[in-house]
Design a protein that fits this description.
By secondary structure, this protein is of the alpha/beta class. The chain has two domains: 5-131 and 289-342, Rossmann fold (3-Layer(aba) Sandwich); 132-284, Dihydrodipicolinate Reductase, domain 2 (2-Layer Sandwich). It contains 13 helices and 16 strands. It has helices spanning 14-25, 37-46, 60-68, 80-94, 105-122, 132-145, 167-178, 221-224, 241-244, 256-259, 286-303, 337-340, 343-352, and strands spanning 5-9, 29-34, 51-54, 72-75, 97-100, 125-127, 151-161, 183-186, 189-192, 198-203, 210-215, 231-239, 263-272, 275-284, 333-335, 357-363. The chain has a seven-stranded parallel beta sheet with strand order 3-2-1-4-5-6-15, with helices on both faces. A hairpin with a 6-residue loop joins strand 10 and strand 11 (210-215). It binds NADP nicotinamide-adenine-dinucleotide phosphate. NADP nicotinamide-adenine-dinucleotide phosphate binds next to helix 1, helix 4, helix 6 and helix 7. NADP nicotinamide-adenine-dinucleotide phosphate binds at residues 10, 12-16, 34-36, 57, 76-80, 82-83, 101, 103, 131-134, 166-169, 172, 290.
Length: 364
């Protein structure tokens, strides 16, 4: 059997490079894809040779050909507000599994609203927001809330220092914070409209302790978590100091080693009438964590490793997945990270890669 073939769109970006390098090191067949042919060729030479595929967003036939040549497409080019639809559509039309790094709430919502039907029809699995922001929160919420009933609130709280935004991340952050159509999840329902961010204090466990947070931040957990946790409210928060650090927005061109110097603690609180449950992941280099999460997802989809082929349980708020595709992964449809893969074991696998230290505990 030939090794899985994985296409990486946006391969020349910071995230795409990390994804491509890791896939290459695992000995998988890869195609480096994006809109800049010369940059792709240079990257291919750096990696010691890999297929290259140049295709721009306004070339749907070429994007279909790209997706048609691979088992899985990992979409790393952003902002996804600009790039998301073209690649997801091409993957569905070509019958290729799909994983993306989207941070944008509206892209994630669009994936569930618009791509569920095409994904099921094509028999493919699409996993959206499989990254650090959004993805790690969704996985932690899934792991901590597993088997818990009567959930009132889920809070995913990100403490990040040393985040040096790339061009793609800066553009994405600017779009997100300028968008007044923010999605929130309160009183058991999704709402769209402007929400004035407030300052909140989140009680991170020691050594971090209580931190001032921007609450809410417009991350995709409000779309993804209610699909698998029946809660009254879901909210994502980010430490206020993250954007106060001067280098956050002035380091677009720093080298990869400097960029790897971020530190994070992502904590989740699942608040019920009877007590709280908590969990956290503590590590460094959020970019590497993002890249390897998408690689782990893609490898599972390509090899058919998911949740044993049974498909996840239908989510309380969502439509639930389609049937397992002959024992190959979670089956056809669009999934959040924690819907696509059993969250606890998936996180433990990421921990084994040295991406963070995981604590999943029950507080009573
Ligand atoms: N949720 C998370 O935690 C997380 C983590 C990592 C990344 N991301 C997201 O992933 C995206 C990329 O991040 P990055 O750090 O890798 O950014 P980056 O280093 O600036 O790279 C961006 C990549 O996207 C490509 N691109 C941008 N606009 C494009 C377009 N219109 N058509 C085709 N290609 C386009 C760029 O190609 P050119 O070089 O040709 O411009 C480049 O390859 C961002 O949206 C970011 O928010 C999210």
């Amino acid at each position: 059997m030939s090794p899985p073939h994985i296409a990486v769109y946006g391969a020349t970006g910071h995230t795409g490079r990390l994804v491509a390098a890791d896939l290459h090191a695992r000995g998988l067949e890869i195609t480096l894809a994006g809109r800049d042919g010369n940059a792709l060729k240079t990257l291919s030479e750096e990696l010691g040779g890999a297929l290259v595929f140049e295709a721009a967003l306004d070339e749907p036939a070429a994007l279909r050909d790209l997706a048609g040549s691979a088992d899985v497409l990992i979409h790393c080019a952003g902002p996804f507000t600009d790039t998301g639809r073209a690649l997801a559509t091409a993957a569905a039309e070509a019958g290729c599994h799909y994983v993306d790094h989207a941070l944008e709430q509206h892209h994630t919502k669009w994936m569930f609203d618009a791509m569920q039907g095409p994904a099921r029809e094509a028999g493919i699995t699409m996993v959206t927001a499989m990254s650090f922001y959004g993805g790690l929160g969704d996985l932690l919420a899934g792991a901590v809330a597993a088997g818990v009933t009567g959930v009132d609130r889920v809070i995913t709280a990100y403490s990040v220092t040393g985040w040096r935004l790339t061009t793609g991340a800066r553009k994405t952050a600017e779009l997100l914070f300028a968008d007044t159509r923010r999605i929130t999840y309160t009183d058991g329902a999704e709402h769209v409209g402007y929400v004035e961010p407030r300052n909140a204090v989140f009680p991170f466990p020691p050594p971090l302790g209580p931190r001032t947070m921007i609450a809410p931040v417009p991350f995709p957990e409000v779309v993804t978590v209610p699909r698998h946790v029946a809660a009254r409210q879901v909210e994502a928060q980010l430490t206020a100091h993250t954007f106060e650090e001067e280098q956050a927005f002035t380091s677009e061109h720093v080298d990869a080693a400097t960029r790897a110097g971020s530190h994070f603690t992502v904590a989740v609180q699942v608040i019920t009438q009877d007590g709280n449950r908590a969990g956290q992941a503590r590590g460094h280099d959020l970019w590497r964590m993002s890249a390897l999460a998408s690689v782990e997802a893609a490898v599972r989809l390509a090899g058919g490793q998911g949740d044993g082929g049974q498909g996840p349980e239908p989510g309380p708020g969502g439509q639930g997945p389609g049937p397992g595709a002959g024992g190959q992964g979670p089956g056809p449809g669009v999934f959040s990270p924690a819907e696509a893969f059993p969250a606890g074991p998936f996180l433990r696998d990421l921990e084994r890669l040295g991406l963070f230290t995981l604590t999943l505990q029950e507080e009573r």
